[in-house]
Amino acid sequence: MKKIIYSSLLVLAITLLTSACDNDSDMNSPHGSTTPPEQVVLNGVKNLPGKSIIYFTQPSDKNFLYMKAVYMTEIGERSTNASYFADSVVVEGFEKAGEYNVKLYSVSPGEAYSEPLEVKINPEEPPYITAYKEMEIKPDFAGIRIKTSNTSNETLTFYVYRKDATGKWTEAGALYTKKQEINEPIRGMEAVPSEFSVVVKDRWGHLSESKEISLTPYYEEEVDKKKMGYLAIGEYKGYLAPNANTPKNLYDGIIGSNNTFMTLTTAGYDFTKPSSVTLDLGKKFKLSRMIVYGRRNGTDYSSIFDGLYPKEIEIWGRNDNNVTKFDPENDEGWVRLYQGVLPRADGSVIPAAIVPLTDADKELARDGNELEFSVDLDAYRYVTFVCIKNYNVGTSRINVAELTFFGTPEDKIIQ
């Protein structure tokens, strides 16, 4: 009796399985369906700079696997797919604004295509053209500065060419960026009158026209650390001790060791207030940039973007040393040159104790945090580094290995 029951159940299972296979053999089969799915239903189009978003509803068809959009650009046919779970597709890579035709195909697992649903789109002016039109090219320290907008966060490349003595254009540098507001220097150039040309390229290979300008980059040199010194002013007295905490360590040229300047709790200073150290550049400089190196002992990065690594800082300048303390609120001789943060490689200021260091963070630690000064600032001899808050413990104590300054000495400033 049991054998009969088992046999009957087996026959029933085989029958049901065979029936299911017969009914669904042409639906979502991994080997492919030869039946074209129904078309998608168009829900609308959103036109954006250099691209359009097409919204659709997929058909209630078991043969539908994905949607394929096919369109033409100036370099030929392009296509992009929208998955089974998507309700929109982005078509992009257009050279200019205008009307374009897009064909939408429903596709089965066996790559059987529906009849195309034709859609007209009107992408707006591509970001590379807008960036070209709005681009300003100005002289900067040891180079030029490019200022423009890129509201779509598109990946853009700015190629800079400089005309040599023979009249030939040679590449002088390039800028790669996705920033919305672009205000970046391209350096490494001599401070001599020159003709420049800048071309903008997007990730699709489209090139703008060239924008040409004649200008002279500002002269830039590194401040000679052998001629630097410091002023022992203010309430903090710890740096007066003849040991590893002297400010001289900030300009001794030694990076990547424990030879640092660290403010001490034993100095009796209230580090809930900003702390500062004032350096003498030896003569007046119109500062262009500055590099801050944190404490790093070889491959030991435990102090980088953590602990006493400066986070919120200010840089102040003045031109006389007839001063006993850093008090910009009551002494107009102090001028603020910079205010900002020293960020990690990804732009964040999260302590390494919370988010571990990345390889990019370690590379940044080796290269140093570079900050720029406005070209509109005057020249100053005395520079004060102010820490508002460090990375971890929330006070203004710091442990810094080196400060490197660049700029134009007063005698080489062109008015």
CATH top-level class of the largest domain? Mainly Beta
Number of helices: 3
Order of helices and strands: HEEEEEEEHEEEEEEEEEEEEEHEEE
Largest sheet composition: 9 strands, antiparallel
CATH-defined superfamily of the largest domain: Galactose-binding domain-like
Q: CATH topology of the largest domain, which one? A: Jelly Rolls
Task: List low-pLDDT spans.
Answer: 1-30
Structural class: mainly beta
Number of DSSP strand runs? 23
The CATH architecture classification of the largest domain is Sandwich
Report how far the terminal alpha carbons are from each other.
Answer: 110 Å
State the helicity in percent bands.
under 10%
- The structural domain count equals 3
In terms of DSSP E residues, the strand content is 35-45%
InterPro entries: DUF4959, DUF5000, DUF5126
Protein name: DUF5126 domain-containing protein
Domain DUF4959: 20-123
Keywords: Signal
Describe the structure.
It is a single chain. The protein is mainly beta and 415 residues long. The protein has 3 domains: 41-121, Immunoglobulin-like (Sandwich); 127-218, Immunoglobulin-like; 222-412, Jelly Rolls, CATH 2.60.120. 10% of the residues lie in helices and 40% in strands. It contains 3 helices and 23 strands. The protein has helices at 2-24, 127-134, 359-367, and strands at 41-48, 51-57, 66-73, 76-82, 88-92, 100-107, 117-121, 136-140, 143-149, 156-163, 169-177, 181-187, 194-202, 211-215, 221-222, 229-231, 261-262, 275-294, 310-318, 335-341, 369-372, 380-390, 399-409. The strands form 5 sheets. Strands 15, 16, 17, 18, 19, 20, 21, 22 and 23 form a 9-stranded antiparallel beta sheet that branches. A 4-stranded antiparallel beta sheet has the order 4-3-6-7, with no helix packed on it. Strand 13 and strand 14 (211-215) form a beta hairpin. The radius of gyration is 32 Å and the shape is elongated. The termini are far apart. Mean pLDDT is 90; it is low at 1-30.
